Amino acid sequence: MRRLVVSMVVSLDGFVEGADGNPPVPEWSADLDDWTTEAERRFDLLIYGHVAWRQMAAFWPGAANVAGMPPGIAAFAGWMNSVRKCVFSSAPVALSDWSGSARADVSLPDLVARERTRPGQDMVIFAGVTMAQTALRAGLVDEIRLLTVPLVMGAGRRLFDGPLSGRSLALTDLRRMDTGAVLSQYRVA
């Protein structure tokens, strides 16, 4: 059965979004290349709310053509631009701005239930704290992957803020990255 994973970059002080609304950005490295390659092999559906989708749609379509862009980002852009994306939005979004994007036609729980029955790889919420919190509160998340970067943001939004129910997590992987970031992976019990 396909699983739903929340995969976020988080600052050392726990923020997945800064006061300016932007996520912490990891330093690109060989280990981050490996992390993105794992994502390419594992996921075939990205789930977004409209805010995170707009941020991603503003970056990824042209990322491979930006002068000085690390080769790993350019390679990852090919996958990001070709993989299927589902956007939850009541506001208008220009789906043609990012290939492979479609508007959700059902609720998040219904989408996840439907996708679990289909053949394919796992689903992931890569960005968007609101979407991730919604999925966590609804009990839809099977796994949480956090890339903790050595950065203190001081303010912003945390993934685990608000009325999230107490769920046990089991650590399944812990890796130190070559930049000092730490990748931790948890199974939701």
Structure at a glance:
The protein is of the alpha/beta class. The chain has five helices and ten strands.
Main features:
two-stranded antiparallel sheet; Dihydrofolate Reductase, subunit A; alpha/beta; single chain; eight-stranded mixed β-sheet; 5 helices; 189 residues; 10 strands; 30% strand
Topology:
Elements: E1 4-11, E2 15-18, H1 30-42, E3 43-49, H2 50-63, H3 71-82, E4 84-88, E5 101-103, H4 108-117, E6 122-125, H5 129-137, E7 143-149, E8 156-158, E9 169-176, E10 182-188
Parallel strand pairs: 1-6, 1-7, 3-4, 3-6, 4-5
Antiparallel strand pairs: 2-8, 7-10, 9-10
Protein described:
With 189 residues, the protein is α/β, with parallel strands linked by helices. It has one domain: Dihydrofolate Reductase, subunit A, CATH 3.40.430.10. The chain has 5 helices and 10 strands; from the N terminus they run ββαβααββαβαββββ. It has helices at 30-42, 50-63, 71-82, 108-117, 129-137; strands at 4-11, 15-18, 43-49, 84-88, 101-103, 122-125, 143-149, 156-158, 169-176, 182-188. The strands form 2 sheets. An 8-stranded mixed β-sheet has the order 5-4-3-6-1-7-10-9. A two-stranded antiparallel sheet has the order 2-8. Helix 2 (50-63) crosses helix 3. The radius of gyration is 16 Å and the shape is globular. It starts with a strand and ends with a strand.
